[in-house]
């Protein structure tokens, strides 16, 4: 098993994910939202790149539900540059995706970085899973069980590498190296080393993170939520139809 880490969504190419099982990571905040929503009973999350196509898909699903008497809610969730998209039901805060809001819901989601990273990896990868610090070990275990090569995709921010995603990827790379005798690419080794150094002081690592400093005042509660490790064992997976389910 060889483990590679891709530093940002824009670095994903078919060649880098072909034949690999892939985990997409966006700690602040898209994959943390997806993990939280599905843990809280959401039926499915559909990752979209564009805003207009998100509205169109929402309307299509609402009509399908009407025709089949499906009472499950259909919600729009996401952001652009941390701000809720006008006309959407939910922003990109995991705390908004409470059980009473998302239970049995189909959520059409579009975010600046995370949902784009998922869609960049579609097509060539063997399987695509959704990882955050919240479920890192569970996803790493799922990736390790088949024994094939793995790519951990950090969504980054505006196609630039971010430390919070590197910490999660490093945590998972170290798990795979330890439990499944995985070999690490240079990037995977570096991320695993950084995680090992800051394992007991994640905030110390984030002090060097520009993305963290840009959101820490407004989203302090979200950050605290997203930095929890292994609080759930759910392993969301992208289905062939394009939805993310458990």
TrEMBL record:
What is this enzyme's EC?
A: 3.1.3.71
- What InterPro entries does the entry give? ComB-like (IPR005238), ComB-like_sf (IPR036702)
Family stated for the protein in its record? Belongs to the ComB family.
Instruction: Give the molecular function GO annotations.
Output: 2-phosphosulfolactate phosphatase activity; magnesium ion binding; sulfopyruvate decarboxylase activity
Enzyme class at the top of the EC tree? hydrolase
Q: Know the name of this protein?
A: Probable 2-phosphosulfolactate phosphatase
Q: Matching Pfam families, A to Z?
A: 2-ph_phosp
Q: Which cofactor does it need?
A: Mg(2+)
Report the catalytic activity: (2R)-O-phospho-3-sulfolactate + H2O = (2R)-3-sulfolactate + phosphate
The UniProt keyword set, sorted, is: Hydrolase, Magnesium
Q: Which PANTHER family match?
A: 2-PHOSPHOSULFOLACTATE PHOSPHATASE-RELATED
